[in-house]
User: What shape does this take?
Amino acid sequence: GQQVMQIPQYQHVQEGEDFTTYCNSSTTLSNIQWYKQRPGGHPVFLIQLVKSGEVKKQKRLTFQFGEAKKNSSLHITATQTTDVGTYFCAGSGSNYQLIWGAGTKLIIKP
Amino acid sequence: EAGVVQSPRYKIIEKKQPVAFWCNPISGHNTLYWYRQNLGQGPELLIRYENEEAVDDSQLPKDRFSAERLKGVDSTLKIQPAELGDSAVYLCASSLDRWGNYGYTFGSGTRLTVV
Assistant: This one.
């Protein structure tokens, strides 16, 4: 069945360093969404990418959707303590169901 | 505007006991989802409703789990009897349309502990 692989599982960075998480799908996606889950919280919708090669920015966050619509990335520039949490990608296939990645946990080293 | 409301926030029960979770989605959101999230993992879909119709319940363990959304608004998820492996966070989400355009809005979840 459809799978969305997300790497890395964890990333430790010093505050001020950059962070990137990657998602790869086994099949072409109609769109991909990104969510952030703070420790002890619930997933919060960040953005949806629909077009091949699409790039969207939200302040220090840059989201990309691959040309083949099978991969995506989230890049955070100059991380801050408020960025701590787990970032999930979720790809939408043909049956409207979101297939979730396992998430990348961003840990800021003191 | 109120978000997705779930109750209870926490629940501790003994194995073999029943438990129920309640969810009230955002007003106007016709699609409602129940997810289960284990520690350190992504959400796993249990059931998806479009209005009052369960359109995807393929991942719902039907021997012990049941759900309903009688009037196409709020929803209840039940487990009977609960097993130790059911300990998880149960998340309810809603979306404006079946494609999830504009994203899913999640409730705060119910953390279930089965002892």
About this structure: The radius of gyration of chain B is 13 Å. Chain B has a mean pLDDT of 94. The interface with chain A takes residues 40-45, 48, 56, 91, 98-109 of chain B (CB under 8 Å). Chain B has no helices and eleven strands.
